Amino acid sequence: MTNGLSIDNSSNIWEFTVDGSLKKTININAGSYTSTTFINALNNELKAVSAGITAVNDNGMLKFEREMNGSSYTVTNINIYGNKNSGASLNLQVDSGASLNLQVGANSGDNFEISLTDARTGALGINNIDLSTRQGAESSLVNIDHALKTVSQERSRFGAYQNRLEHIQNDLSNYESNLTSAESRIRDVDMAKGMMGLTKNNILSQAAEAMLAQANQEPQAILQLLKSN
């Protein structure tokens, strides 16, 4: 898709099936597109039909993303068909390594990436188990053993994710506690500085009042001396 692409009337109607349940049909206007204009046109059509997915250009590769819990992940189970009337089909390469990025810190680079794996029966190869014959049962046992091994590995991996997230949570709790303590110390210093300033102003005010009172007493003392003479 780096060099752009052309869409004609035999391949401008696309039907999307995402995760086996979401089915949407869009109509792309025939014509020549650059990678940017094609992505924009495609996203406009996807938004118009509320497809819930977004097209992105990843180094010349067309990918689709979906929002989940405030984070985006790559859609891996997607089927795209061209015009039904012409029998045309559209082959697109979709990334198989879906991931979920979590913001785990205050800075932009504080991310935690979780790799997601399709663990549904179809992906595990156990959606069409045949137990009606001995050969089918033996073949099913192999598929079931493989599925159990895959699920066990994924559970171990997600257990490691959980441990790391708990460690991150503890670090963030300590960071919050230290930050609160530092803020409290800063506020205490500001309060002490304010009290020192108030005490200084009170002393200066009292000294000024005493000097003014003494200055007022001197003329009266001179008048008393004159009267006595």
UniProtKB/TrEMBL annotation:
<dbReference type="InterPro" id="IPR046358">
    <property type="entry name" value="Flagellin_C"/>
</dbReference>
<feature type="coiled-coil region">
    <location>
        <begin position="158"/>
        <end position="185"/>
    </location>
</feature>
<dbReference type="GO" id="GO:0009288">
    <property type="term" value="C:bacterial-type flagellum"/>
</dbReference>
<feature type="domain" description="Flagellin C-terminal">
    <location>
        <begin position="143"/>
        <end position="226"/>
    </location>
</feature>
<dbReference type="Pfam" id="PF00700">
    <property type="entry name" value="Flagellin_C"/>
</dbReference>
<protein>
    <recommendedName>
        <fullName>Flagellin C-terminal domain-containing protein</fullName>
    </recommendedName>
</protein>
<dbReference type="InterPro" id="IPR001492">
    <property type="entry name" value="Flagellin"/>
</dbReference>
<dbReference type="GO" id="GO:0005198">
    <property type="term" value="F:structural molecule activity"/>
</dbReference>
<keyword id="KW-0175">Coiled coil</keyword>
<dbReference type="InterPro" id="IPR042187">
    <property type="entry name" value="Flagellin_C_sub2"/>
</dbReference>
<keyword id="KW-0975">Bacterial flagellum</keyword>
<comment type="similarity">
    <text>Belongs to the bacterial flagellin family.</text>
</comment>
